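Researcher: I'm preparing a figure for a lab meeting and need a structural model of a single chain. I don't have an experimental structure, so a prediction will have to do for now. The sequence is pasted below. Please return the structure as tokens so I can convert it later.
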Amino acid sequence: MGRIKCLIFIVMSLSLFCICCSEEKKAEVVEQQPNIVWFVAEDQSPDFFPMYGDSTISLPSLESLAQDGVVFTNAYAPVPVCAPTRSAIITGMYPTTLGTHNMRTYNAYTTENQPEIEIPSYSPIVPQGTKMFTEYLRKAGYYCTNNAKEDYNFKSLESAWDVSSNDGHWRNRPEDAPFFSVFNYNICHESGIWKQGANELSVSLDAIQVPPYFPNDSIIRHDMAVNYSNLARMDAKIGELIDQLKEDGLYDNTIIFFYGDHGGPFPRHKRALYETGTKVPMVIKFPENKKEQDYNATFLNFIDLAPTVLSLVGIQPPKNMQGKALFGKYKNQLTSKYIFTSSDRFDGMVDRLRAVRSQKYKYIKNFNTSQSNVLAVKYREQMPMMKHMNEMQAQGTLDTVQSLWFKTPKPEEELYDLENDPYELINLADNEIHKDTLVHLRNVLREWIIETNDLGRVSEKELINRWLVNGEQPMVSELVLTEKGGLVSLECPLNDATIIWKRPKDLVWSIYKEPLDTDIEFIAKAVRIGYVDSAILEYTSD
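Model: Understood. Here is the structure written out token by token.
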């Protein structure tokens, strides 16, 4: 009898051990597959946020997120405008390498793009192997939603998202599926300055601190106050989603990114290669609020976002990505020494600039010195501040600092000491003391242009002629179907295209990962950035 009791005890112990191991394994899987949420503010610089030292307005939701997370003090957009920057975010590559460096190439908002300069709407043919990184997440079982702005400077692919619309939300996912959900906030976009200009302000004009490159008057103060008020509106919306994560019991295991898609909405911010145009707010909250520091000064370029997200969920980033994984299983141990940024066409205006910054200095190369920094972009000229500054410049009432942005001709080279001159007002390019720094950064930038195959060296019309066939996007070749052993295999002659499929009644396309059973009826096609989708293949089971 004692032996039987002993055996029962051993069996129960082993069972308990197996259950514990199983639970540990499940916990391990959950830990390797954290949920990820992105809150994306349009057109914002760090200078407007409390976590960066600005006390003009309280943003309680973002301040709380910053307390739980890490504030990044050197995060940058590669281009100071949205569509090129978003192409970098979704691919992990520089827009100048992709051919998405002009604003904008693919225009989903109108049938015409820039007819006045004979630039049609087109999708650049991106380099071999380039994919929208969410494809890798979806293949790994992630439910991916985008709410709702795309604007990638190329036509988005149906392989990228489970849902990309105003209905995109993690709450619609299959049960227990890990998720990656993006929420974009248009309320703080440049256009919000004039669209919200007559609405109630959340901050007094007297509380506004005006930087020296703007006139300190009521028109400037009002536009800046509108921006702060728009940020308060955005903060309330972000707070609602954070509350939902907590209600759903997901906050602790969710990595949350908050960032601006490029610099601020004002003149000399958006579309400018100064820090005001390219430096962005960035906060990352990790699982269980774990962190080694409150502030992180590591250089972060938006090309780092895709490989970092993949690494955080245990997916090895593809080698063609130019960005670095900053965290996770495949963290790159080498941090970036430099940040590279670019400027080319903005709507109907063209002005090519390139810049590189080190920890202390910023170097800017102007390729068209006859063009003032104040590009006559019609869209921006709806802003009261822009109209006001144009009038003051014409009347000669801007002071020497405020008129620098209007200067023509521009210097061929600019060099700034960012530690001592954070607003980039004193050009040291002709200062003999800084000659070695100038030459060094000039060479660093030149090497980057060559190494990354900067397509800004080629005229846009020539690039279009390279990519389009008789003025049309090329088409992906038809899929090849093979049946063998009760399975249906699909191949595409264009080897870096993505094959997607769905059952006739499905709403969402799935990414083809392995052969399908012959008893499944489905339709399939292949997609690739810059190409028209292949013809649809229909398969009917016998």
